[in-house]
Specification:
The mean pLDDT is 96. This protein has 9 helices and 12 strands. Helix 4 runs parallel beside helix 8, helix 6 crosses helix 8 and helix 8 packs antiparallel against helix 9. The chain is an alpha+beta fold and 301 residues long.
């Protein structure tokens, strides 16, 4: 996948000069709530413009270059809105170094009457957008939440989901499992082709699509934020929208009007969400162990 990444700077000051001119200055910094990985700020400049900045430790700069790649990939489909990327970078700072991502500041508007229908149609259009080749994965590894996500290209979707989605998460969570659990996990991974299907065509997926990663733009339309993008099966995005409370029924109806679902999606949904629940188990601890065990038992007894 050919993606042109935004410029990367070694100084926030230099980034602002290149973007807005030599007389630019930050006149106000406001902390913005939301997110549990990065700090977020609204920066007001002396030219009246506002920009959005995410910041993290300097050694975590890969978070932002990966996010920029995902946002760019989504924007390149022309199917659905994303925040405009200004740049990424690092800065030594006065006290401690940090990494940053600068985005155009988005003033959230009032949702249009057809907000959910439009989101369903646009997500389906993104999933139906052509990819450059038939491999699954991405041109670089990235992150799902704060955890690394392996995107090694693979010719088989089922192999990709087994080797680079489920298996690494099961391995990381091994200390939570009993010997009985491990036998079931091995059986599940060894027989994954009995439960999953190869997609009719590869799709760019958001990769972490829950309500918190969708926002309303100033035009009242939905925008996608905080992606964990890769080329995969469109069903993984649809499944995750159902994991934590679900989207409006109008979203699903509109999505299905545009994107053809292969028979048996409902039987695969929990298996796709197993990846997300394993990731939550590895991030947040044993409260997610029960749901993980239940899904494994659902497929292999």
């Amino acid at each position: 996948m050919n993606i042109t990444l935004p410029p990367n700077y070694n100084s926030l000051a230099q980034a602002l000069v290149d973007l807005f001119g030599t007389s630019v200055a930050i006149v106000q910094t406001d902390r913005v709530s939301g997110g549990d990985i990065n700090k977020a700020y609204a920066l007001t400049l002396n030219n009246g413009k506002r920009i959005f900045m995410k910041a993290n430790a300097k050694q975590n700069a890969a978070f932002f270059t990966a996010e920029a790649a995902g946002l760019t990939a989504i924007a390149n489909t022309g199917a659905i809105g994303t925040p405009e990327i200004l740049c990424t970078g690092t800065d030594d700072g006065e006290d401690v170094g940090y990494s940053f991502l600068l985005l155009k500041y988005i003033e959230s508007g009032k949702k249009r009457a057809d907000y959910w229908e439009e989101l369903g149609r646009n997500l389906a259009a993104m999933h139906d957008a052509p990819t450059q080749d038939k491999t699954f994965g991405f041109f670089q590894d990235n992150f799902v939440g704060a955890r690394p996500q392996i995107n090694t290209p693979c010719q088989s979707w089922i192999s990709f989901f087994r080797d680079y989605r489920l298996a690494p998460q099961f391995k990381a969570a091994d200390s939570y499992f009993t010997s009985s659990d491990r036998e079931k996990i091995t059986k599940l991974l060894d027989h994954l082709e009995d439960f999953l299907v190869e997609p009719e065509h590869p799709s760019l997926v958001h990769g972490d699509l829950w309500n918190g990663n969708v926002m309303c733009g100033p035009d009242g339309k939905a925008m996608l934020i905080d992606p964990a993008c890769y080329i995969g099966h469109a069903e993984v995005d649809l499944a995750m929208t159902e994991l934590f409370g679900g989207f409006s029924p109008a979203f699903y109806e509109a999505y299905r009007e545009v994107h053809h679902l292969q028979p048996g999606y409902e039987n695969r949904r929990d298996l796709y969400n197993l990846y997300q629940l394993l990731n939550h188990l590895n991030l947040f601890g044993p409260s997610y162990l029960g749901p993980v065990q239940s899904i494994v038992a659902e497929y292999v007894g």
